[in-house]
Amino acid sequence: MAGVSSSAPTPLAKYKLVFLGDQSVGKTSIITRFMYDKFDNNYQATIGIDFLSKTMYLEDRTVRLQLWDTAGQERFRSLIPSYIRDSSVAVVVYDVVNRASFINTTKWIEEVRNERGNDVILVLVGNKTDQTEKRQVSVEEGDAKAKEHDIMFIETSAKAGFNVKALFRKIAAALPGMENSAMARDTDLIDVKLNASASTNPTASQESSCGC
Amino acid sequence: MRHAATFARWARGSGDWRAEARHWTPCALLRAAARLTDFSVRELARAAVRLGARADSRRRRARRASVFRRMEIEDELLQILLPADRVSGDLSDAQRDGNTPAEPFSLSPEERIDRLRKLVATHGLPHSANEMGTEKFGMCSLRGIVWKAFLGIGVIPVHNYMNLVAQGPSADAEKIGNDTIRTFIKNVDFTSRVSPDMLSRVLNAYCHARGNTKGTYVQSMSILCAPFLYLMPEPDAFESFSVFLECHVPEYVNNYRGVFSAFRLFEECLRVADRQLYDHFVGYQLKPELYAFSTISTLNACVPPMSDTVKLWDVQLAFGAYWGVIFTLARIVNSSALLLSSKEGPGAPLITRELEQGLGMNAEAVLKLSFELVQQFDAHLLQRLVKHAIQPPQPEDAGS
Ligand SMILES: Nc1nc2c(ncn2[C@@H]2O[C@H](COP(=O)(O)OP(=O)(O)OP(=O)(O)O)[C@@H](O)[C@H]2O)c(=O)[nH]1
Ligand SMILES: [Mg+2]
Question: Does the beta carbon of A197 sit less than 6 angstroms from any atom of ligand 1?
Answer without folding.
Answer: no
